[in-house]
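Lecture 7 notes: from sequence to structure.
We start with the chain below.
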Amino acid sequence: MMRTWQISGVLDAARARIATARLAAAYGVPPLERTRLSAALSAHLRQCLTKGGTWRLTLNPIARECGEGRLEVLVTPSREVSEAGQPPWRMTLVCREPDRAPEAGAVADDPAALAEALLGADEDTALVLRKLREQEELVAFHREELQQTNQGVVALHAELDAAGRAQREAFAAERKARTEAEEARRRLTFLADASAVLTTPLNHHEILRRLPDLLVPAYAGNVDLWLFETDGDARGATAHPAALTAARTGRPQYAAGHPGRLAGVDDHPPSPEHTDRPVLCIPLPTRREPLGVLTMSPPGERWDPDDAVMLVELTRRASIAIDNARRYEHNRDIAETLQRALLTELPTPGFLGMAARYLPAAQGMNIGGDWYDAFRQPDGGVIAVVGDVTGHGLHAAVMMSQLRTALRAYAVDGGSPGRLLTRLHNFLHNLQPDLYATAVIARFHPDEPTMTWAAAGHPPPVLRGPDGRVRILDAKPGAMLGIPLKQDIADHTVRVAPGTTLALYTDGLVERRARGIDPGIERLAAALGSFGPAELDIDLGGAADGILGPLLSDSERDDDVCLLLCHLRDQG
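Predicted structure tokens for the same chain:
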């Protein structure tokens, strides 16, 4: 139901405001909206009273189908005020009970009652203020929480920043460690490869030639070698003053205008003649005395300390390689001299032609225990022997010499090949219990139509008859010479005629690791049978070369090779 109030003074305005507030509460307008209505209506009525005239306040509830309606409040001016251009004032509120018809509840004219009514009308304002205070407290609480949260976020950011710095430092340390590991691997690889290059050759001149090539230009700008001779003199490049100090003290020297701070290297003042670049002088030590001094300049301004340590180690290894090569060359020269002295010229009996070939191993010291010999006996017979002492080097050559000498001494007293080998076996077993040998001996006599032979652990002889047929004399041989076993080596006899050729040899001629020894013996027999009788009569040495060629074509010759051909001539 619509309600209307005429307002022309302060009391009218107060009564209308109080009545409006009470009716709004009766229609179900919420307290907050009622407070907003009272505040806005009071402000507008104050303006109306200031302008003067008569004003009309209308309160109109409007229902809707859904049950919730609107409460429309309208303040319109009188005609004279409206003509002055004052527009009406309107406010619409949501109300829960628009169909309710409450009593108007007239407001008394008594000032005390009016004041009491005004105080009662301000309850909604007090409620709103209470809610505002609660909201302020809630805002303060949330502001405190937000501040604490911000502090936590700031602390978290600080921790994340610290963690980020720690992670970056860890990554940097890891990269540094990886780089250092790669550098160490590079140096170790170079040191291993360079050591292999220097220790492979057994010629010290070749080692000296290879050493500068390994260092320049990666680790040195240039390299000079100052070598001492056995008589105390030196040869090679002109010695740097720091090299003299290195030779005298046996310690590496670093000569430069600034300290090198290199591990195991002494700092040396620069030479007046060599002030342009630093110099590193490293002695070449051996177990007995220094060989010389290696002098080098850096590839750049200076050496990395770890590179300098590697260079000192490489120089030490090069020195050992040079010393070993020199010792090897010395022993080889002695052994070669001894072996050349032992491989004497063959005898030249009229009824027997002989040709021998000896080839040292292509690898190693090239001096072994293979040997051949041929000599006359007092009764006119001829002894031909091929032997093989185990091992290589000077020791094997010396033992081969002793066996050769002992065999010649035993043969002076006569005796068959088996008897001679038996005596050699006892001699070697008593002289060198840990050394063994193999041998084959053949005896020819111009008045006998037979050949007698015996073998001790040696490959079988190969015999070619005058008709070109080849036989392998594979009768059971004796055991190796020198083994801890008592044995009597048996003789074997075979008939021979002029034109017969006998081949005695060592296993280096026929044995191959991949195929064994039997195929090699078959190849030797085929090569011997390929010659015609005239070839063997005319050029027995050429026949020996013709046998060696095909048999050694596929061999690396890692063992000595010895071949002795004996050809019976027709004396008629």
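Points to note: Confidence is low (pLDDT under 50) at residues 231-237. The radius of gyration is 62 Å.
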